[in-house]
Amino acid sequence: MKTSGGSDAAKRRAGESAAETVADGEVVGLGTGSTAAHAIRRLGDRVGSGLDIRGVATSFASRELAADCGIPLLDLDEAAGPDAPGIDVAIDGADQVAVGGGEDDGPTAGPLIKGGGAAHAREKLVDAAADRFLVVADPSKETPVLDRPVPVEVLPAGRTAVAEAVRATGGEPALRRAERKDGPVVTDNGNLVLDCAFGAIDDPGALATTLATTPGVVEHGVFVDLADEVHVGTETGVRVARR
Ligand SMILES: O=C[C@H](O)[C@H](O)[C@H](O)COP(=O)(O)O
After folding, report:
1. Residue 118 falls within a domain, yes or no?
2. Are residues 186 and 238 in the same domain?
3. How far apart are CA 112 and CA 226, in angstroms?
4. Fewest CB within 10 angstroms: 7, 55, 134, 151, which?
5. Is the CB of 4 under 6 A from ligand 1?
6. Among this protein's residues, is 20 annotated catalytic?
7. Could you tell me if the ipTM is greater than 0.90?
8. What separation in Å is there between the alpha carbon of 147 and the centre of ligand 1?
9. 83 CB contacts (<8 Å, ≥6 apart)?
């Protein structure tokens, strides 16, 4: 399991807070990463105590963890077809989340960057299909303006063409390399990842459209207008920002 900055206690509070909102009978999208893993473990505990849910995994890693935790699983095709139950709620992490001011109504949940674990293509499928999408994060992920490099999953044959297109829009692409093998990271879908630095992203919606319409791009890690709630675990509790 990939880990990231931020304390594990804060991640656990965030994951468990979101897991507590899941109700009996629901179909639950199971996110990827070290924060979502806490939600999966808590859901596994609740299943052990009688909660009746089915999970839809977003990656090889989340499927494996959910199976270890005793959560019954559905494929996305089984959950999202015409006569299928649908996905009631998805719980997933983020690499960066824009949280707005909201002095009167509390903080507001804005766009996200995801894909630090190269799982963003399946995550976006599941998170977008869910009736409620809950993001779980620690305070190191919050920012007023997104500015982390955006993970872009590309067809292997499109790697150079997509890199050129990214440069043409002012971005700087870097092929993601594996830490424990000589060569690139290969996604669960058999593709490559370009981490594309754009500096401060003033218009995430426009960038999302540009990347989505670039030939060779399978999926990018900008998630716009998808998050319903962001559960931010702190050293002492949990803050919830809403859309
Ligand atoms: O591809 C991976 C996912 O988008 C993760 O949800 C994201 O990288 C956050 O992971 P973590 O909770 O480990 O920081």
Report:
1. yes
2. no
3. 9
4. 7
5. yes
6. no
7. yes
8. 16
9. none
Angle at 36 (CA atoms; ends 39, 181), nearest 5 degrees = 140
For residues 53 and 111, state if they share a domain: yes
The answer to whether the CB of 92 is under 6 A from ligand 1 is yes
Could you tell me how far CA 136 lies from the centroid of its own chain?
9
Confidence (pTM):
0.95
Domain CATH code at residue 134: 3.40.50.1360
Domain that holds residue 185: 150-220
Q: What atom in ligand 1 is closest to the CA of residue 35?
A: 12
Residue 4, annotated as binding a ligand: no
Structure tokens at 30: 């199971």
> How many independent structural domains does the chain possess?
2
Distance 121 CA to ligand 1 centre (A): 12
Is 55 annotated as belonging to a binding site?
A: no
Q: Are residues 113 and 167 in the same domain?
A: no
Taking only the tens of pLDDT, the chain with its 243 residues reads 455 668 999 999 999 999 999 999 999 999 999 999 999 999 999 999 999 999 999 999 999 999 999 999 999 999 988 889 999 999 999 999 998 876 666 778 899 999 999 999 999 999 999 999 999 999 999 999 999 999 999 999 999 999 999 999 999 999 999 999 999 999 999 999 999 999 999 999 999 999 999 999 999 999 999 999 999 999 899 999 998
What's the CA-to-centroid distance between 179 and ligand 1, angstroms? 17
Out of 16, 20, 26, 123, the active site residue is 123
Alpha carbon 161 to its chain centroid, in Å, reads 26
Output phi, psi for 135, to 5 deg. -95, 140
Residues 51 and 29 in one domain: yes
